């Protein structure tokens, strides 16, 4: 009897120990017990605001098309937005940007700016502003928005949380494209009625420097991560020009070789769209007449043309994934940067093409935005690359 009792006791102790061990293991895996918590998986999505090619609803409708970067850029969901003209029709989307501080995505249209909370996907506010709204840019801390009026005399500086106006910056340059510097200290303001790039002090909201003059009025542009160089499209040029952001001087004019300047469907200039790979080793340039993206070696100065990629429609913008693996022209082609091959195409839930000049990558963890890309294809190197 004594031996049987001992065996029974050992069995009961073993059962209790096994149950306790299983509970601890489960608790640690689920993050509810005393063990280390496992971080939620980061999800990487591409948010595409439409209509992002003029007001063409055939390229994605009216709202935000969301694609899963890690699942062959397949369609995930559609988020309805505001942004209507006075006649009730969807307005042209002019710009898109993200604030991690507010957990919101901001979409500018011809008339207004709207703020959409990323977790709930609800429009928190939409406000109209004097002079309309063009392509916005948000400060690195996510709290301030520089908002160009629609090709008019000034930029409006607004609070990202409320949309309230902080001040105005008058440049008389036909305000158009805007890049907030990665250091948060300077903002670059390009007007399509000026050959000079204005540079604003983000603390005082005043113009402190001008860069140029460039060969013609400035269209899209990008900068390197150390904020020493600017690469600009200008009217009439199939190519781009380079300026020194520190000295303010014009440096180089780079012309695409082997292709003719032809008629373009939109924007009125041969090259409308330029971006820099995150490692800053290459410049990718849009060619609207020839439906191509031209790639330049940016490890030398001036950059040297390397190759060209045929895309499915006229490209009017280009940016890159945060990891530098993919290039995103506005045509909806997804290009592998290394192989130069089109590996995916953006399509909605009905297998229709999605195209837009306004898209941004957003990473989520636990349902909240934890990282975001940039619509401009800005370089990500904090120290300037040495040029050969």
From TrEMBL:
Keyword Signal tagged: yes
Matches recorded under SUPFAM superfamilies: YVTN repeat-like/Quinoprotein amine dehydrogenase
Stretches of the chain forming a coiled coil according to its record: none
Entry keywords, A to Z: Signal
Superkingdom classification of source: Bacteria
PANTHER family assigned: DIHYDRO-HEME D1 DEHYDROGENASE, PROTEIN NIRF
The UniProt record lists the keyword DNA-binding: no
InterPro entries from the UniProt entry: Host-pathogen_enzymatic-act, Quino_amine_DH_bsu, WD40/YVTN_repeat-like_dom_sf
Name of this protein: YncE family protein
Organism (species): Larkinella knui
Signal peptide coordinates: 1-22
């Amino acid at each position: 009897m004594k031996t049987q009792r001992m065996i029974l006791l050992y069995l009961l102790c073993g059962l209790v120990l096994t149950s306790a061990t299983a509970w601890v293991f489960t608790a640690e895996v689920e993050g509810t017990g005393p063990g280390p918590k496992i971080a939620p998986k980061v999800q990487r999505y591409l948010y595409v605001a439409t209509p992002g090619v003029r007001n063409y609803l055939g390229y994605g409708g009216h709202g935000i098309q969301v694609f899963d970067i890690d699942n062959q850029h397949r369609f995930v969901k559609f988020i309805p937005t505001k942004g209507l003209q006075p006649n009730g029709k969807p307005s042209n989307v002019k710009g898109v940007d993200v604030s991690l501080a507010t957990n919101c995505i901001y979409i500018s249209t011809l008339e207004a700016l709207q703020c959409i909370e990323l977790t709930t996907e609800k429009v928190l506010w939409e406000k109209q502003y004097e002079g309309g709204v063009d392509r916005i840019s948000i400060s690195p801390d996510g709290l301030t928005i520089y908002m160009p009026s629609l090709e008019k005399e000034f930029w409006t500086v607004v609070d990202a949380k409320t949309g309230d106006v902080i001040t105005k910056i008058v440049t008389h340059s036909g305000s158009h494209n805007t890049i907030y510097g990665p250091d948060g200290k300077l903002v670059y303001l390009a007007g399509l009625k000026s050959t000079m790039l204005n540079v604003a002090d983000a603390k005082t909201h005043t113009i402190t420097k001008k860069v140029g003059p460039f060969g013609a009025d400035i269209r899209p542009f990008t900068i390197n991560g150390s904020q020493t160089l600017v690469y600009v499209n200008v009217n009439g040029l199939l190519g781009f020009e380079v300026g020194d952001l520190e000295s303010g001087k014009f440096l180089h004019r780079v012309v695409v070789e082997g292709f003719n300047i032809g008629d373009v469907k939109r924007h009125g200039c041969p090259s409308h769209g330029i971006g820099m790979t995150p490692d800053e080793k290459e410049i990718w340039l849009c060619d609207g007449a020839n439906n191509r993206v031209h790639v330049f070696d940016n490890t030398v100065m001036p950059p040297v043309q390397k190759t060209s990629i045929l895309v499915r429609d006229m490209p009017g913008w280009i940016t890159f994934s945060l990891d530098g693996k993919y290039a995103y022209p506005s045509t909806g082609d997804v290009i592998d940067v290394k192989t130069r091959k089109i590996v995916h195409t953006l399509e909605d839930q009905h297998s229709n093409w999605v195209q837009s000049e306004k898209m941004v990558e957003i990473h989520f963890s636990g349902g909240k935005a934890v990282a975001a890309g940039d619509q401009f294809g800005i370089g990500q190197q904090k120290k300037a690359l040495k040029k050969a």
